[in-house]
């Protein structure tokens, strides 16, 4: 037996005890979530590959291996933001009936799976709406027995907006940073616009079911109103204010009812 043969060989236990590296998909999500957090906390200037590595707790160079350019890093952030926004803002199910509530009470009227955003920035503080009635996924239930009137649409939109304002302000701040950057990057603009259709198209379907004769035109008004409320209460004149679900529902119902009655009067 030679000296080389006498050296101890690693056992099967030793060979398998080394921690496996983070799976590519899991690492990509971790990096994208860290990028979103940095955009919200530090703005576009604070988003660097090195900063993402540090924020994600990964070895230096990890982000560069996944997204070699700044453009690629921004695109990864937009795609991940769209995934997380889909669990917060995209209306999936019309409520069976718009049960009235006051303040921040959870409505049992909306149906669907629970809130799905599990990103690290999700706020689960005392204002969080953790009740039933998810606003997630691309479909809209407008089948028989489902209330599709203005009050029902107002109820589901109020739920979505209140969840965003009370739990996901960091997602909003990151979105505003990315929206401005997309105006200067055509490739990023295309990805950003594609993600936005996940909210706009269900809005058109809901308005058509509610009786709109011009659902695409009315959808522009409603999306603009939703965006305006979110911006005003996050970065605008009302940034210290979080409207209650009841307040949001009332305002939304007033706008919807006015649009639909106006079209009837014009016929």
UniProtKB/TrEMBL annotation:
Which keywords appear in this protein's UniProt record, sorted alphabetically?
DNA-binding
| Top-level taxon of the source organism | Bacteria
Domain HTH tetR-type per the UniProt entry, residue ranges = 25-85
Q: Does the keyword Plastid apply?
A: no
In this chain, composition skew of type Low complexity spans: 9-28, 91-102
Supply the InterPro entries for this chain: Homeodomain-like_sf (IPR009057), HTH_TetR (IPR001647), TetR_C_31 (IPR041583)
Give the residue ranges for region: Disordered.
1-28, 91-148
DNA-binding span(s): 48-67
Q: What is this protein called?
A: TetR/AcrR family transcriptional regulator
Tell me which species this is from: Streptomyces endophytica
